[in-house]
Amino acid sequence: MSTTPTGARVRTRFAPSPTGFIHLGNIRSALYPWAFARATGGDFILRIEDTDLERSTQAAVDVILEGMSWLGLDPDEGPYYQMQRMDRYREVIAQMQAKGLVYPCYMSVAELDALRERQMANKEKPRYDGTWRPEAGKTLPPVPEGVQPVWRFRNPQGGVVAWDDKVKGRIEISNDELDDLVIARPDGTPTYNFCVVVDDIDMKITHVIRGDDHVNNTPRQINIFRALGQEPPVYAHLPTVLNEQGEKMSKRNGAKPVTQYREEGFLADGVVNYLARLGWSHGDDEIFSREQFISWFDLDHLGRSAAQFDEAKLRWVNAQHIRMTADDQLAVLVAQQLKKRGVESIFEDHVARICAVFKDRCDTTVALADWAEKFYRPVQPAVEEVGKHVTEQVRPAIGMLAKMLETCPWNRQAIGEAIKEVLRATGLKMPQLAMPVRVLVMGTPQTPSVDAVLELCGRDAVLRRLQAA
Predict the structure, then answer these.
(1) pLDDT at res. 344
(2) pLDDT digits (tens, 9 = 90+) for 201-235
């Protein structure tokens, strides 16, 4: 088991906000802390940051839980919900009030806006100016009547806040760049940056692996950690995932909920493999199992530049995993796809044999199901395909083959011998007979070996389809 420098057990977390459906860019921020916890024998915690009541939805929570479950990113603890921890946050705020770590601020929104406008007009960075911060010898403005204050954290003055980021290296921010953060609103509800720190302390988080959109929050959070007498965790801020147009991946920019990839026939292991390489590497290894990923994963090989999503590459990776997956496992997934299409009387051992023959040419289980469906429903070849391949020249050979298939043993070898005998008798080449047979039986001139396909189709269906010529 790996531990932190202090000897503590490694504990990582994924803390999504359920304000939109989680997509592949988001789920990568779950994959890496999950993998690090697994690689070090530590714990992975799921925390739902649902304090944005206006935008948080149960449907978004469901997609988080369902997507993580599908991908096998199971937490050791959680999900914890921030809205269920409000009493704990208020308890810590009260402790900070008692210690003088926070102070009430009565500056109204209108006053704050006016201050910012003046600062911008003077080409200064807009920030709270500490009007209500108590200092020795300072006279505070009179407290306005009937106004509930916000509570601001006394950010340290002077010096820097610094950390060694596992992705970005050393980062230093001057404390004078940071104003006094609001940690509680007028109604007493806590704010995001404060809740995160209390959660990370209570949950004993040792490593925070998250998107680099949180870098600006980190110095504020570190200062709160230290004010509460705690050392901050190790941070690793992951570069953004871009979509295929080079924009930040988001729902607004067309990103799909992660669960949609399951519906589209992607394998969980294929998606995990692809996502793992979207910001981390192990030499030149492109295709690897989940077990290999866990055994190889560390924070030292995280990429420093933004990764770009490429659906064609995801499909290629998924195709490799389909080939690596046992036929009986694929059959379960393909049977589920067929049942969604209303196909009844499915035998998984038969579907497994179909998978064995067709999986080398498929990049999703949906593509496999497209082939499998042809064995369970009537096939209607396109008129142009029939006209092109089922010519008057070849019809006698098709009839001869149908006659021989009525009585030959129904296995691939015997079917192959029957086809060869027809070729010898008619002088045709294999493609001249095989392509029209494929069109009639499967609706397409391109399939794997024709004898294997006919065996899977069954004698009655093959004869019925050939006789339709």
Answers:
(1) 86
(2) 999 999 999 999 999 999 999 999 999 999 999 99
Q: Which fold has domain 258-373?
A: Glutamyl-tRNA Synthetase; domain 2 (1.10.1160)
Looking at domain 99-161+170-184, what is its CATH homologous superfamily?
Answer: Glutamyl-tRNA Synthetase; Domain 3 (3.90.800.10)
Instruction: Tell me which DSSP letter residue 332 carries.
Output: H
**Predicted confidence (pLDDT) at residue 352 exceeds the cutoff of 90:** yes
Contact, 255 vs 354, CB < 8 A?
Answer: no
Residue found by looking up tokens 């709160």 in the block: 224
Pairing relation of β-strands 307-308 and 241-242? parallel
- Collapsing DSSP to helix, strand or coil, 411 comes out as coil
Cβ–Cβ < 8 Å for 35, 293: yes
In CATH terms, the fold of domain 11-82+191-241 is: Rossmann fold (3.40.50)
Is 251 annotated to bind a ligand? Reply is yes
Q: Where are the alpha helices (DSSP H) in 180-310?
A: 192-202, 218-227, 258-263, 268-276, 290-296
Single-letter code of the amino acid located at 19: T
Domain ranges of the chain: 11-82+191-241, 99-161+170-184, 258-373, 383-467
Q: What is the pLDDT at residue 333?
A: 97
Scan for tokens 């080409």, then name that residue. Answer: 123
Cβ atoms of 365 and 262 within 8 Å: the answer is no
381 close to 446: Cβ distance less than 8 angstroms: no
pLDDT band of residue 249 (cuts 50, 70, 90) is confident
The whole-number pLDDT of residue 345 equals 85
At residue 54 the predicted structure's pLDDT band, cuts being 50, 70 and 90, is confident
DSSP bridge pairs for 151: 104, 184
% of the chain surpassing 90 pLDDT: 86
Alpha-carbon span 429 to 4, nearest angstrom: 69
What are the phi and psi torsion angles at 276 (to 5°)? Answer: -60, -40
